[in-house]
Amino acid sequence: MEFKNPYFFALLALLIPYIIWYVLRNKKSQPALRMPQTAKYRYVPRTWRTHLMPLPFVLRILLFTLVVCILARPQSKHSWNDTDVEGIDIMLAVDFSTSMLAQDFKPNRVEALKEIAQDFISKRPNDNIGLTFFAGEAYTQCPLTTDHAVLMNLYAGADSYMAYNNKSIADGTAIGDGIMNALLRLRESQAKSKVVILLTDGVNNSGNISPLTAAEIAKQQKVRIYTIGIGRNGMAPYPLDSGGTIMLPVEIDEQTMTKISEETGGRYFRAQKNAELEAIYDEIDHMERTKFSVRQYSKRNELYEPFALAALITLLLEILLRVVVLRRLP
């Protein structure tokens, strides 16, 4: 703890003349009663009220000191903490193509995956995690970071209709480009375990690089790719511009997804509902972890509340003693 305005402590010097005044005043103003003989009063014990007589004076000094401490603004310190934690580097490569608006996941695949991915992120506080979006093209929504609050905000703020009518990115399914974008973010990683989790519901039909070529590059970089096919078997409801839905077949290139995972030492999963994604979490938790340094910043907080509470209690106690317990008659 430190004080923002320590110069207020100079006010404590005012206590010195106050203490001198109090001592001199008590010496001059002691009540006296003339008695013919005082011997029989010599050993009369002092009452508890007599012992409490100096207490209001002490409480006033304490109250003044607490007020000065409040004026000096006690605060916690700014600090940078360097710590070593264990974790892995993970890039989430998420399909945002129009087909991800299918409503076999509620309310649709994109929005359901937001909750699933955020739950996954919250369970891995020590991992560097980044986020790649892809449809007909790929881009990085968030680079690798341990600031998962920022990561989840960026994910939650993504528009599920960003590829609808080429609103933000070109529509399509560029799986290879999605993998390559994630690999570029992992290129400088020093972690022993590097992972890409690819989530898609379709077949590669766009982009500049094939999924298997991207998988070969991932293998060279020692990056494991976990692929997840999103969508139930058979038909799934898709929204229409005019309202309502239309049933369309679900087509996932599971053969290519499996090859990508096997080539890189990962695993392919088929998710038809949210609960089936939990198997990925168990698989990644058994992977090798590596230590990396994290620098955390703690901001300054005001700490006047305990001093204010102590000052209030001191004031009330002093008033109670002076008015009730040690009340003097004129």
Question: Could you characterize the architecture of this molecule?
Answer:
The protein is 37% helix and 22% strand. Strand 4, helix 4 (109-122) and strand 5 form a beta-alpha-beta unit. The protein contains ten helices and twelve strands. The chain has helices at 15-28, 48-52, 55-71, 109-122, 148-156, 175-186, 211-220, 254-264, 278-285, 305-325; strands spanning 2-3, 74-75, 79-87, 89-95, 128-134, 138-145, 194-200, 223-230, 235-239, 245-249, 268-271, 290-298. With 330 residues, the protein is an alpha/beta fold.
What would the keywords be for this entry?
330 residues; 12 strands; 22% strand
| Biggest β-sheet: strands ordered side by side in the sheet | 6-5-4-7-8-11
Terminal Cα separation, in Å? Answer: 47 Å
Largest sheet: 6 strands, mixed
Percent in strands: 15-25%
* Helix residue percentage: 25-40%
The whole-angstrom Rg is 36 Å
User: What gross morphology would you assign?
Assistant: elongated
Number of helices: 10
Number of strands: 12
Strand and helix order? EHHHEEEHEEHHEHEEEHEHEH
Brief characterization of the structure:
With 330 residues, the chain is of the alpha/beta class.
Give the SSE map.
Elements: E1 2-3, H1 15-28, H2 48-52, H3 55-71, E2 74-75, E3 79-87, E4 89-95, H4 109-122, E5 128-134, E6 138-145, H5 148-156, H6 175-186, E7 194-200, H7 211-220, E8 223-230, E9 235-239, E10 245-249, H8 254-264, E11 268-271, H9 278-285, E12 290-298, H10 305-325
Parallel strand pairs: 4-5, 4-7, 7-8, 8-11
Antiparallel strand pairs: 1-2, 3-12, 5-6, 9-10
